Automatic annotation (TrEMBL):
Designated name of the protein: MaoC-like domain-containing protein
Lineage: Bacteria, Bacillati, Actinomycetota, Actinomycetes, Kitasatosporales
InterPro entries per record: HotDog_dom_sf, MaoC-like_dom, MCH/BMMD
Similarity-based family: Belongs to the enoyl-CoA hydratase/isomerase family.
Record-annotated MaoC-like domain positions: 27-126
UniProt cross-references to Pfam families, sorted A to Z: MaoC_dehydratas
PANTHER family registered for this protein in UniProt: BETA-METHYLMALYL-COA DEHYDRATASE, MONOAMINE OXIDASE-RELATED
Length: 163
């Protein structure tokens, strides 16, 4: 099956998915991404150059007892899986923001992360009924089944009729 034909648990593939295809109460799990020391250091060197993110030697003496990924790196990994599997490629109109972003557990080299999503609620926009608002609880889960990141993502999506 081609990537554009995958439904990833939805009734419609990602390139034909609109507001109406998101159902409150639905849960999805996607992907598996390995976190490497090189990626942790590379990301942090550019965006979050704290010693426990960029210097393995110094990190051993730091608050986490070793090198850990920047929280912003874990958000980027979440977003990669979110966009690749859940968020419509034809109806997404962006996001007004996120709520309650929490880093729950350090992410270390060698961790394997997957994404668990729970569609919290959906509603038509009051200001423009050609679009809807979808709120989704997103969690990155490590190889032990423990959440390392939790955030509520808010997305604006076109309705099928407005396409």
């Amino acid at each position: 099956m081609n990537d554009h034909q995958r439904t990833d648990g939805f009734t419609a593939p990602i390139d034909d998915r609109y507001f109406e295809d998101y159902t409150a109460g639905a849960t999805y799990e996607y992907g598996n991404v390995a976190v490497t020391e090189e990626e942790i250091i590379g990301f942090a060197s550019q965006y979050d150059p704290q010693s426990f993110h960029v210097d393995p030697g110094a990190a051993k003496q730091g608050p986490f007892g070793g090198l850990v990924a920047s929280g912003w790196h874990t958000v980027a990994l979440m977003m990669q899986l979110f966009a690749r599997h859940y968020l419509s490629t034809v109806a997404s109109l962006g996001s007004p923001g996120v709520d309650e972003l929490r880093w729950l557990k350090p992410v270390r080299p060698g961790d394997r992360l997957s994404l668990r999503l729970h569609t919290l609620d959906t509603r038509l926009s009051r200001s423009d009924p050609r679009r809807g608002i979808v709120r989704t609880l997103a969690e990155l889960i490590d190889q032990s089944g423990e959440p390392v990141l939790r955030v509520t993502v808010v997305n604006l999506l076109r309705t099928r009729d407005s396409a």
